[in-house]
Amino acid sequence: MKLTRRHLLAALPALGAAGLGAGFVRMLHGLNQGHFDPRAINTPLTGQPVPDFPTLSPLPDAPALPGLARENFQSLKQPVLLFIWASWCLPCVEEIPFIRQLATSLVNRTAPLALWGLCYKDQPASAARWLEQAGNPFTRLGMDQEGQAAIDWGVTGVPEAFLIMPAPQTGGRIVWHRTGGLTDALYQAHIRPHLEGTP
Amino acid sequence: MRRLLLAFFLLLFTIPASLAVDTPDEMLPDPALEQKAQQIGQQLRCLVCQNESIEESSAPLARDLRHIVRQQLQQGHSPKDIEAWMVQRYGEFIRLRPAFYAVTALLWLMPVLSLMVALGLARRLWRRSAPSPAPLTPEERRTLDSLLKKD
């Protein structure tokens, strides 16, 4: 059969439809595998320095747990995993066993990673009670009762997590940001690779 | 009937105004500035209820962002500055009307492109479909004449 221009023209829409179909299958596959989330919000802070945010006070009755300020990121010696959480947040309850386990494993082998917390729109009393019950995994905790600092971090809800690497010039650089709870699978896939080069 | 239709259309126009803020005390005392705030807010996506603007949504984050829009307007920031402030934190996604740049160029140009393609195709089809018939050969003329004479 001779290929005419007419055949080529007729093939165009078919090819277009096939392309769309392939894209759609890819999308569905991604949904199944968990690396495509249609509701995911893009994270413009990834790759950026730590944003300016108002200094957050610590919990009133926890002398061993300092608050959180922009300056704390200036002189980082190790990467920081910053958790945004609240005592009223159910997914945070699901996430806490993993964070606890992570905290213990970090204490056991000389910590390459610090766990810091930002407590979003919470009462200090409820936050303190929650930490007491769950076991506090954090070495720093800032209370963001108004939720203003969270907005500077581009937080849309709780839980969220940021991985910040030491950067002498800018004072900490965000290399990873995710909305939703943190699991061991996510840790292995996204956080662990960043930690291998650090002392 | 006509009046009814008119009433209906007038009603349609009142809805956007009534969607605004949750409580009146959120609103700015200056009506002109408040209107400006609403215009800005209607172009910003609520990150919680993603198909609503922050002016329409009752999510706490939307309320916080509405408050920030009004605060910054009162401090004399321009709508452009406020949008840039939001985009810096939440990305281009927060704009309900994306800005025109390399990534969104195809999005904005697609209607024009598809119209151009459609016009081009239509022109081709138009040209091809109407070739004028060739004049009759002398032989055909004779046959036709003889057929006509038979009647």
UniProtKB/TrEMBL annotation, chain A:
Primary location class: other
Keyword Nucleotide-binding in record: no
UniProt-listed PROSITE patterns: THIOREDOXIN_1, THIOREDOXIN_2
Record's subcellular location: Cell envelope
UniProt KW keywords: Cytochrome c-type biogenesis, Disulfide bond, Redox-active center
Domain of life where this protein originates: Bacteria
Residue intervals of the Thioredoxin domain: 44-196
The protein, known as: Redoxin domain-containing protein
Gene source species: Bombella dulcis
Automatic annotation (TrEMBL), chain B:
Chain segments annotated as transmembrane: 99-122
Purpose: Possible subunit of a heme lyase.
Organism of derivation: Bombella dulcis
Record bears the keyword Metal-binding: yes
Biased composition (Basic and acidic residues): 138-151
Residues of the CcmH/CycL/Ccl2/NrfF N-terminal domain: 10-148
Sorted UniProt keywords: Cytochrome c-type biogenesis, Heme, Iron, Membrane, Metal-binding, Signal, Transmembrane, Transmembrane helix
InterPro entries, per database record: C-type_cytochrome_biogenesis (IPR051263), CcmH/CycL/Ccl2/NrfF_N (IPR005616), CcmH/CycL/NrfF/Ccl2_sf (IPR038297)
Pfam families assigned: CcmH
Region of interest called Disordered, as start-end residue ranges on this chain: 131-151
Signal peptide positions on this chain: 1-20
Domain of life from the UniProt record: Bacteria
Full protein name: Cytochrome c-type biogenesis protein
Family: Belongs to the CcmH/CycL/Ccl2/NrfF family.
